[in-house]
Amino acid sequence: MALNTIVNEKFKNAFEQKCCQLIVDAYQTTLTEQVIQLNWNENDISSELHRHIKDNPLRLKWKISTNVEADIPKDIPKVKGFSDTFPRIDFRLTSFISTYEYEHFFEAKNLKQNDSALKRRYINTGIDNFISKKYEKGSLIGYLLEGKPNETIKGINFLLEKDQRNTETLIFKSNNLIKNYYESYHSVIGTLKHLIFDFTNNSN
Fold first, then answer.
1. 82 belongs to a structural domain
2. What is the pLDDT of residues 119-152, one digit of tens each?
3. Secondary structure (3-state) at 120
4. Model-level pTM?
5. For burial by CB atoms within 10 Å, which of 5, 63, 93, 202 has the most?
6. CA dihedral for 32, 38, 39, 43, sign (positive or negative)
7. CB of 97 within 8 A of CB of 64?
8. Which region, left, alpha or beta, applies to residue 162 given φ > 0 means left and ψ of -120 to 50 means alpha?
9. Using CA atoms, how far apart are residues 11 and 14, in angstroms rounded to an integer?
10. Is 203 part of any domain?
11. 117 domain residue, yes or no
12. How do strand 171-172 and strand 138-146 relate by DSSP bridges?
């Protein structure tokens, strides 16, 4: 039984790594295409990323499926609010290996360096939703639309410290997939991963 648990954990970790690669690949593609506009809503950006995850050949090779709540229209005008015309799309990636089903979730939030309300929302409806286990087996993504990643993270940490949550601050970690990667530790769930997608250099 112990061996099965070890093998299962290895599969789970490998699956999570593949999910992270798929979403980071999607992010890099949007940077290349320069399609993301800095006034877009969260769901607008998420829908664009989701389309690239779905189109990635690696997803099929790895037999990873996505939970699509609605087909993503390809030929609609992409202006602020376009994703509100169809149901909200969540990043839920799943795969079956033997008798096990593996799931990984990504929750995304818009961020701006000088917007405390967005940083507070990142904590209250991002971090705290994982701590409460409303979202499980997942990671947080910050869509940075203004400012610098490190200064924005300092602002999030300032709010956590203000709430006397000093042990839960985000700490930079080296990651071979993405430059702006952080981790925070929470007694209830352990380590929570944070991927910051910096769109500030996008010409749009």
1. yes
2. 999 999 999 989 988 877 889 999 999 999 999 9
3. helix
4. 0.86
5. 93
6. positive
7. no
8. alpha
9. 5
10. no
11. yes
12. unpaired
d(CA 158, CA 145): 20
| Strand-pair partners of 95 | 102
- Note the helical H segments in the chain: 2-33, 42-55, 57-61, 116-122, 128-131, 149-162
Q: Looking up tokens 């992409």, which residue turns up?
A: 78
Give residue 80's pLDDT: 77
Q: How far is it, in rounded angstroms, from Cα 7 to Cα 173?
A: 26
Exposure letters 92-125 (e unless 16+ CB within 10 A, then b): bbbbeeeeeebbbbbbbbbbbbebeebbeebbee
Measure Cα distances from 96 to 42, 92, 139 in Å: 29, 14, 20
The residue among 23, 37, 27 whose CA lies nearest residue 202 is 37
CA–CA dist 9, 12 (Å, integer): 5
Number of helices followed by number of strands (H, E) in the chain: 6, 7
Domain count, the chain: 1
